[in-house]
Structure formats: C-alpha cells, structure tokens
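Per reviewer request, we include the raw input and output of the structure prediction for the construct analysed in the revised manuscript.
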Amino acid sequence: MAREIEVDGFQHTVSELLIRHRSILDIMTKSQEATSRMNRAVAKAVTSCGCLKINAGKKSSTGATLSDLRQFLDSNLSGEICNDCRETVESEIGRNLFYLAALCNVLDLNLMDIVLKEEKRLKMLGIFNLS
C-alpha cells in the first residue's frame, strides 16, 4: 500500500510541476526524447566508459520448450555498471517516468492502477506473455 501512495504522490508532483510542456503533443515528443536519452546513456556505458560490454549473437534454442528458453537467453550484457553510468541511467529513467506520469495526467489515467492491471495481466498470462 505504501508504494501505491508513493506512485500516486509522484504522479501528483508531476501534475503540479508540468507547466511548460502541458500539451499532449509536447508530452509525447518529450517522452520520446527522454527514451532516446535513456538509450544513449546505456550505449555510452558501453562505448565511452566501457563498464558494460554487449556480447550478442544468434541464440541456439532448437528443441527447447517455452519454459526452458530462460536457460538459453540472457541480457547479452557483461560487466557491472559503474556508479557514474548508473547515476546517468537512473536520471534518464527518472525523466522517462516523469513524462509517463505527465501523459497519464493529461489522459486522466492513474499510473498505479495501470501498473497493478499490468501486473495482474502478466501473472495471469505467465510465461505465455512472451514479452
């Protein structure tokens, strides 16, 4: 219950602070920009800092059942994110959450309700969610 209050409080704070980019179009484009900045921060952890490495290639999972796929698939990341990169990525994720909450406010949606509904859907579908 405390986390619900925290999410609702966050959404309320966003509602009070969002003045300049209150248009739905502004919110959508600022959200897209925030997502790009978040992705760039992760990429820079690999390319500029080097604290993370990406080791990706085709995964062989022939003959595996759906429940066995977890053994064959991974994040393709190695290394550990350093404190500087962690701070940057967290900041960009925070900005992303800000615009997500702003979008919910403009559309008169409750972010916590959406989270709870999505969690219920995920639990119901389980491994068949395929996301």
